Structures are given as C-alpha cells and as structure tokens.
Amino acid sequence: MLFNSFEYLLFLPAITLAYFLLPNRYRWILLLAGSYFFYMYWRPEFGLLLLTSTAIDYVAAIRMSKSSGKKRKRWLWLSIGSNLGLLIAFKYLGFLNEAFRELFQVFDFNLSEPKYSLLLPIGISFYTFQTLSYTIDVYRKRRDPEKHFGIFALYVSFFPQLIAGPIERSTHLLPQFRIPHRFSLQRLADGGRLIAWGLFKKVLIADTIANYTNTVFFDLHNHSGGVLLASVYAFGFQQYMDFSGYTDIAIGSALILGYDLFSNFERPWKARSAREFWSRWHISLTSWLFDYLYKPLARTFRQNWLANIFILFLVMGLWHGAGTGFILFGLFNALFYIFSYFTIENYFGLPYHRITPRVERWIHRAGNFLTISFIGFSVGFQRLITGDQILLFFRKLFTEFNFNFSSLFFMTQDVFLLATTIPLIFYVESRRGFLAKQPFHSIRHAWIRWIIYFFLIFYLLMFGDKTAQEFYYYQF
C-alpha cells in the first residue's frame, strides 16, 4: 500500500479511529494486524518472510538471555546469519550470478545454468537492519529481550516505518508500545501537516522531476552528455524530495497514533563537509552503520581507519542495491570523505592565525559547494546501475558535452509547478530554527503559515497525479 494512494487515505483514518476506540490492552493486536495487512497488500507471501525473520530474532534474543559464553554467541550468529542470508538470497545472488557469468564469458566459458532471479521483498533491507540492531543490543546486554512475541512482532512490522524507515532502534520504539496513548488534537494537527508536507514533496516535486529523469535514464543513447549530467543532479534532488517526503509521512502517521520516530533528514544541502552531510542524510542508516559496523571495525583495526572508511561506504552502497553503480557510489563517497577530512575540515591547510571570521565564512561556503556538488552527483549516480550504463555516461560526458535539451519535451504545467514549489521548500527549510518534525514551527507569523497550508492543499488537489507513483526507496 502506497502512502500516496487513495487506499492509504482510507487506511490511516480507519486505523486511528479503531485504535483510540479500543482499550489499551488490545491496541497492539490492531496495530499488528493492520501492519501485516499494509505489508501484505503488495504480495501476501511477503508476510511469511517477515514473520520468519521476526520469529528467528525473537527466539535468538530469548535464548541469548538464558545462555553464556559460546552458546550466547551462537544464537547471535544464528540471528545475523539468517537475516543476512535472507537479504543476500533475495537481493544479491542474482547480481553475483550475473557477475560470475560475465567473468566466465571473458575466458570464453559459457555457463549453461539458468539465471538466478527472485522478486525482492519490499522493505527487506530496512527491517533486516532493524531486527539486527535488536539482537546485537541484547547480545551486548544493552537491553533485555522482549518476551511478548506480539509486541516484538509489532516493533518489526510497525506500518508507518516498515517499508522505508526510519530504521528504528528497539531502545527507542519498543517501550512506546507499552505506553497508553490518548487521542490528541494537537498531535492530529501536527501529524496531518507533516503528511501534507511529505505528499507535497513527493507528488508535486519528486514525481514531476521523475517524468524527465526517467525519460533520460531509460534512453541514455539519445541524450547529450550535458543533459545526462543535469539529469544526474536532478535525480539527486528528486531522491531527496522523494525520500524525505516519505519520512515526513511516516513520522506524521506515527505521531497521530502517539508514537515518535527518528528524524531521518536535517537539511543535508546545508552540509559543509562529507561528515556533516552523512550526519544529515538518511540519519537512521548512517548512524546504524556507524554504531554497528564502523565502531567494531575501529576497535579491531585501530590503525587502519582509512580501510574502515572504505568498508563503511562500500557496505552503504551495497545496502542500497546490487549493481556496479551502487558499488561506485560507495567508493566515490569514501574517497570524498577522506578528501573532505584532510582539506575542508582542516580549513584547506591554512595557518590558524589566518582564519579570520570572514575567511572562515568563505571556507564554509567553499566546503558547502564542494560537498553538495560531489555528493549530489554521487547520489544521482545511483541511477546508473550497470557497467555499460556508466561507461556510456562518461563517454558522452567527454565526447558529446552540450546542454541540448531539445531531446526533452517540457510541459508548461511541469515548469510552472517546479518554479512555484521548489522555492517554497527552500523558504521553509532555510528558516532559522527549522525542525524536520515541525517544518512550519520556525515561521513566526500565523497568517504566513495558513497561506502555506492553503497552498499545500490547493496544489495537491489541483495538480496531484491521480495515479500513485511508488517511492524510490521502496526498492531497497
């Protein structure tokens, strides 16, 4: 079920009404049933996979709490192995199979086996990492195991954040399922505004840009290098609008029910270095990788922090997908992270006594320009998945570089939409004191806020595409 679909606009109010009418002790049953219905709306068999992963982690955590030494570690490896095994089987074996097939063909040896292909279960990368953090925390004795299977299953499958995050930690979300929540008009208003803001980003901006980026990336041969480069940057912005829009709807939906989810984006375009960018973009993933991957690597290989950075970003790239483009996305960002550390964060090597406030401002501006230019390119670069597409892109970039947009047909309505909606996004998000969970809080004058609310609703009703388009991160 898509957040931007008519079905969800019926589903959320129905769940909310039933939730607050039920006694507190039965609410988890409603949310669990609703979450599985939400997930199985695409394909019912996906629910069985979700339940299997949930049951394994539930049992592993319980057994870990009753074991010690090697037995305790075996239960941890059962959880890690089963979760990563399912993820690899559904997401990466097809890519590996094809890579080996191409490698053998280089040596004139053709494999006769059929191609390996499985339908990727939606959201598997998100709930796999969520359950892994739970079992690792139990192993590290940072939390006790959840003994109520239904509550634990709800933590894994909670519908607002099940498909594309935020990737919640058990220490943050699990306790909230045991707290009685009363209906609040303030939460309803705040959540409703976030949902409208998210739909505005997704339906009016991301989907409009997608009309053109899809045209380019589905037919790379018929567009010039300049158009391809512009499309890569446009896709990076499209992805930000798409994913942050999803996050706004997820947080808003949970807020109406009384639950608090992690913030996933904090104005990443204001970042002045690679490290700052990755502390603002997809925060729940980057913080997960830092806590559960980088820190253990840093403790084990203290002298090889450069290698640890490459491993971190390579895993980040592969988490997004199986393809050459995702691998290069990770490696490029590792290189830029290291470059940024030694240059931008070190004030480009200037002596301390020469760093005046004015010089510091210019360094920050230069750092912001370099960061957004490079990482914006690398994020958009994810759209070039195969090696052939990447080679074609760079060949056109160096041999056919011109901005001949005659290959694209721009609709007047789309140009008007982007010209009037994008400035509003930057107006709201550029305000001092901006909060991602309360995007309009920093606007002092109530009459300006009400104009914006009217603008959002009017544009969604007038220009919103009646055919719901899938969120980009659903494929992960």
Describe this structure in words.
- The protein has 19 helices and no strands.
- It has 476 residues and is mostly helical.
- It folds into two domains: 6-178, no CATH class; 184-476, no CATH class.
- The radius of gyration is 23 Å and the shape is globular.
- The two termini are 16 Å apart.
- The model has no long low-confidence stretch (mean pLDDT 86).
Write a brief structural summary.
This protein is mainly α.
What's the end-to-end separation, in Å? 16 Å
Shape category: globular
Number of helices: 19
- The figure for the number of domains is 2
**Biggest β-sheet, characterized?**
none
Strand content: under 5%
Give the helix level as a range of percent: 55-70%
Structural class: mainly alpha
Order of helices and strands: HHHHHHHHHHHHHHHHHHH
The protein's oligomeric status is single chain
Keywords:
476 residues, 0% strand, single chain, 2 domains, mainly alpha
Produce the secondary structure layout:
Layout: H1 6-21, H2 24-40, H3 45-65, H4 69-91, H5 93-106, H6 124-139, H7 149-157, H8 159-162, H9 170-173, H10 185-217, H11 225-257, H12 274-278, H13 283-300, H14 305-320, H15 324-342, H16 357-381, H17 387-399, H18 412-429, H19 446-463
